Amino acid sequence: MEANEQRLDVPRTLKLGTFHIGSSFIDLLTSGVLNRVLITDLALAATPVALLSALRYLLAPLSIWAGYLSDLRPPGTLRRLPFIWGGRLPMLLSLPLLPFVTALLASDPSSVLGWTLAFIAFLVYGIGTLISGATYLSLVRDSAPPARRGQAIAIVQVFLVISFPVAGVIYGRLMPIYDQASFWRLVLTGMAIAFAFIAFALWKAERPAATPATEPPPAEPFIPLLRRMWSDPRARWFFLFLALGAVSAFAQDAVLEPFGGDVFGLDVGETTRFNAYWGIGVVISLLGTVYFTRRRAAHEQTGVAVLGLALTALPLLLLGVIAFTKAQQLLIPVLVFFGLGFGIYTVGAVSLLAAMTTDQHAAAYLGLWSMTQLLFRGLGIFAGGAVRDIALAISGSLPIAYASVFLLEAVGLLTCILILQRVDVASFARGEQQPLGAAATLAAADG
Questions:
Q1: Burial, 212: exposed, middle or buried (Cβ in 10 Å; 0-12, 13-18, 19+)?
Q2: Mind listing the pLDDT tens digit for each residue in 82-97?
Q3: Which of 131, 178, 343, 354 could be disulfide-bonded to 66 (CB atoms 3.0-4.6 Å)?
């Protein structure tokens, strides 16, 4: 009986994973297709568009607030589903605003109504994402026995990685060339697909919470805990690693598809498939890295993270060269290469993130690291658009503008390798109060 209780319910986990298929069809509309239409087809500045895309990441503290409230739900009630649906439904309902935005800004790029509707759509979308994202992962965690929770989260994350390139191919076929009627059709089709998968995943996905046998211990006050966490130099260096890594890895998010349109003259359908190209690389390397490192403890993944950083920086350097030379024949292979490196980096970084926690305050550390990634990912997306516009204003050259973004990203990721050498993950995982010396840190990384 105990063995059965510790066994993961794989069919149920796979069903929960289909939630991410619906999520990818929502996210790609705003983070990919709309960015391309506004920046390239409507010739709007990249900075305000990137700021809209970054808005949800700048609201990252909402995810902790929503998770905290769901934890406080009384016994006998549903804890997670009300928050998940309370976030996803507004996200879906914000999507029909997007065609109105493109129509208004196409006729008048400075339309106050157009930009106001865009802000409202992205605000609702961002709040919905943050309210439902953390509570969905909590639902997945709750659905698995303690020994299998990491495995369950890994399975549903694979759904997310795989579904993005699939969504990119479908959207590319639905709208190979932008026009308002095609965009309306794309948005409504994406809404229908997303709702179907989300509803299927959440149907009977949660049972009311049971009454706990004992009272939980009182929580440590947050501010003193945060001060104590921040006093550890290992935590401060790890924060810097996560922050710079998020900025550097995602600065291309809002400008990659416009890069294909502005520099190579590719249409919407072709640039939308960029997500599929690098997504294929992520899927291959993510699954392969998980398989080959499955026997390693989380704190032993420093070398994996370093390898991933290097293999993510190199294709970004190559993208900068491609922008200068307009070597279009190298574009797709380099995008796949970027995905391969990014997948390895993701496995290594997530493993280290799990290691940089303590048993007593695991949620507090994970909350801090998650907020760091979300906030600086948003800043990175905004920075990518801003660097593109500044470089364009200085040079008057679109290839130089986009190359500037890619080359700065590569420099940031290579700097992360140096920062990571200052983080003694092994001693932190062992619970040692004082960090080891530099030699011990390198030995732990090499082990």
A1: exposed
A2: 889 999 999 999 999 9
A3: 131
